[in-house]
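On clarity, I found the account of how folds are encoded harder to follow than it need be. What matters is that the chain and its backbone geometry are given together, residue for residue. The format is easy to grasp once an entry is in front of the reader. For illustration, here is how one protein appears when written out as sequence plus structure tokens.
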Amino acid sequence: MNLLAIDTSNQTMGVAVLRENQISGEIMTNIKKNHSIRLMPAVEELMREISMTPEELNKIVVAKGPGSYTGVRIGLTTAKTMAWALNIPVVGVSSLETLTYQAQFFPGYICPFFDARRGRVFAGIYQWDRNKPVPVFEEANMPMEDLLNKLVEEQKDVLFLSPDIGLHKEMIKEKLGVLAQIPEEVYHLARPSHLALAGMTRKAEETHLLEPNYLRLAEAEANWLKQKKENGQNG
């Protein structure tokens, strides 16, 4: 199995290649630059470094969100276009699930999250079982306070993972105290090699039917629907 993994769903951009079920290489950056300009050069550089051509790929795995709307679209569009052109399957994996691989040896709950602004987060709660992450609660877009209250009720050790951990660390510690585990910064970034592992055995999806996992409407669309509803009520 030769597999290309692509993640542009958040500020971190990463690509990795799994060759014959082993990681051959990865490129990963965590800088505020346009993924649309940098993604394909990164893929080409990595393929060149490991002496592989696109025609040798058997599958593409892409992080399908949640995260940045623009970033998610860039990754999915690129992955689907490549898969269609090469006539190979494409698989979408949750960006939150991918992040849990940074804590696969933690015995308690794992809570990956991304900031969704206005006090809300995209979050999931997982627990590792038999070498794979198993969702304890479904991924959702919710107020951070509601998420933490839910975890307080569970009374279990929770390891938090997020590139936005600094925005919510104080509230996490205040709510959960000693139950909250927050590792060093390096563990809060999803790795494309983990994305490759997550998608390695996952069933392929119909290329044109693969959809992003935004967990909420884009703000412009939400405002448009709200205005449309209000106009309808006023009429």
The first strand starts at residue 2 and ends at 7. The radius of gyration is 19 Å. Strands lie at 2-7, 12-19, 22-30, 59-63, 90-93, 109-117, 120-129, 132-143, 158-161, 180-181. Helices lie at 35-49, 69-86, 95-100, 144-154, 165-176, 192-199, 219-234.
